[in-house]
Amino acid sequence: MATDALSNIEPWKAFTAVVGIFVISRIVNYVRGLQAVNNLPGPRPPFQPFNLPGALIPTNSWNTGADVHWARRFSLYKDNETISIVPWFSGKPQIFTSNLDVLRQVASTGPKSCFIKPETASKTLLLFGINLAAANEDVWRRHRRVMGPAFNSKLYHLVWEQTIKTYRDMLQTEPGWTGKSVDAPVIQEITFKFALLVLGICGFGFDFSWGAPPETEQGEMTVQEAIRTVLDANMLLAFAPEWVLRLPFGEMKRSRKAYNQLTRFMQDQVKLRKEEVRSQTKEEYKRDAFSMLVQANESEDGGVKNKLNDEELIGNVFVMLFAGHETSAHTLAATLGFLAYYTEAQDEVFQQIMDVVGWDRDPAFDDYNNLNKVLGAFYEALRLFPAGHVLIRSPLEDTIMEIPNPRGQEGMQRQPVPKGLYVTVDMVGIQYNPRYFPEPEKFIPSRWHQMQNNDSEQFTAFSLGPRGCIGRKFATAEAVCFLTMILREWKAEPLLKAGETREQWKERVLDGKIVLTLGVNDVPLRFVRRERM
């Protein structure tokens, strides 16, 4: 009897002991997390927002999900511009900041900086190899030295020319654009395809066209379709185990096929471009970014150690494609959505287009600096929906940051940052910080009209400092030209549901969603052809 009683009790004792040990371990980890952030105030959720399972659970009253910085953009930094998120159940602590001074400290590439971009924060950018966006320290400097010359005025002129050509190709090919009005139920279907074509032509010298079929006559996937598929499946390809990608399901098979085909194609293209560079004179060099990247690499002094290998060249080509496509496509859609709703802002942009370009000629790249109101609308949409919504850095050694005191208190305070702790610069938080942007929730393009050389330090949606986006002028040249062409010819209006008001349309549409990047919701628009004045 005693033995039976003991056997019944012992499992409960064991279970209680296991639970007790687990609870104690959670308490110890939580206390260590608080110590790691020096008890910096902030949310104390059960899970870390960017890891499983927290990232899969929507942001709510008890969980900080992967979109917490968007969902709580008006409240997360109410008391402090720099906070900590310390999970009590699962995940590591993290510092979040919406302050420019802190951004400068962690984004610096100077000799005194010990912050790097951790590999886990760049996994989606490493699909084809190390590249400028993911590299650190001397490797980053080597990539930057080779990449820099590829982005020059010749490339920006090409972007402008091909944007006009692609816009006309769209009008002739896309159904409905030859009439007096056309409905675009999801304008992103236009902007994503447009951005892909311009990038394919100007970034890589590919002969892309709007009406090209997704497959060749032999049933093979075209390069244009392979690129689109890889971009759409980027998260799957980056994070899924190899065995998952080998499953015989449609999406898996198609994604794997596109990735393998694009890899082979890029490898062949690197060899071809190298041969062209070695056999051509400078006057014969192609103007696309891929060709100029290979040219710059082949011209690099210092031997093999200063050059990029084939995998690095392909890695940089991919990151140009991914980053450029996402930012341009999302922001063009948001810009058109805002201008459709804010008719006075659209009228002001249209008037400048008339004053600078008029009806009787195409805009020229020389008009770029005079179309500051067009650029201002694009910048303001990008401020409200920054595609690159977080920037993550981690120190290689224990260090000290200077962070601002709580709101209402002047001065700075010292914040210890132990080696390996993630510091997340919240780009949404910066763009919505009233210290930098009064009435940050409002669409006010005039914020940017007087910006000298389009280079305000407050504008961080393209990042900041030496690690700022190298393709910024590529994106803005494309945006200004496209918006000038389409808004000169068409007036954008909200496409309303039956019985829907403009205000209801705004609430439904002009909100954000985060997948890999931050973008506006699907934007339904109606374009009405303008009458020549």
UniProtKB/TrEMBL annotation:
Record bears the keyword Repeat: no
Binding site for heme: C469
Keywords, in A-Z order: Heme, Iron, Metal-binding, Monooxygenase, Oxidoreductase
Annotated transmembrane regions: none
One Gene Ontology term of the molecular function aspect: iron ion binding
InterPro entries: Cyt_P450, Cyt_P450_CS, Cyt_P450_E_grp-I, Cyt_P450_sf, Cytochrome_P450_Monoox
Essential cofactor(s): heme
Highest taxon, organism lineage: Eukaryota
Family (UniProt): Belongs to the cytochrome P450 family.
Protein name: Cytochrome p450
Organism of provenance: Moniliophthora roreri (strain MCA 2997) (Cocoa frosty pod rot fungus)
